[in-house]
Amino acid sequence: MRKKRVIQLLGRLSAAGAAAVICGGAVWFFRKVQETQSVEVEPTTENVQTEFAEETSRELPENTTSADSETETECLFLINADHPLPEDYTIRTVGLKDGQSVDERCYPDLQVMMDDCRAAGLSPYICSSYRAKDFQERLFDENVESLLAQGFSYEEAYTETTRNIAIPGTSEHESGLAVDIVDISYQLLDNEQENTPAQQWLMENSWRYGFILRYPKDKTDITDFVYEPWHYRYVGKTAAEEIYRENICLEEYIEKYTLP
């Protein structure tokens, strides 16, 4: 199921790529990016704007409910180096604060999770969510260019970049089903994030809302991606509970339960 090939370098941090990333709007691997995650959605995608998800506990809008089983099944698929998104993949997005947006299918459960985390006296902050492919391409290309300027060959710069930034078309953020959440008091994307109060709550409770910690520390050899104690992926409540209780990752779950 998991092919071993060069592209799997996606998950291996190196010294050059281990620079801290300030999630709230400062540093993206080696350089500053001042733009927000606000992007133009494809003409075939409807962008539904709301004012939720970063505000203190608020009720869900009328007629908004948690995802049903059919929707959860639709959200249960792999996105990685061996399983890129289809070229014609489109989504309907719901706008959050600060130019963020997510797939409308995960929005209700995301909102409840954020509200419940805040109700516990904590301060979670969504610093990254949906990214259009062209935005992912820009992140990737700018990082390659930065390394070229430091004296790397193109091959070295490309390989180094794949260790820190997903190749366009293989990023979970492009699906709209992934969010990076940090504690507002500590917005660095590094391993210390796991020790923050909001993150500890999310690691223990996100499955209740259909989200999983997508790249666990003890599964890097299977996910082929670096440990990210801030990256959550929506897979639906049924799958999320089984993944959490069995201490497995999404690759293992899909291999065990959905492949013939």
Euclidean distance between termini CA atoms: 12 Å
CATH architecture assignment name: 2-Layer Sandwich
Number of separate structural domains: 1
Judging from the principal axes of the Cα atoms, what is the shape?
Answer: globular
Description of the molecule:
With 260 residues, this protein is α+β, with helices and mostly antiparallel strands. The protein has a single domain (6-257), classed as Muramoyl-pentapeptide Carboxypeptidase, domain 2 (2-Layer Sandwich). The chain has eight helices and nine strands. The strands form three sheets. A four-stranded antiparallel β-sheet has the order 6-7-9-8. It has a three-stranded mixed β-sheet with strand order 3-4-5, with no helix packed on it. A two-stranded antiparallel sheet has the order 1-2. A hairpin with a 2-residue loop joins strand 1 and strand 2. Helix 3 crosses helix 4 (154-162).
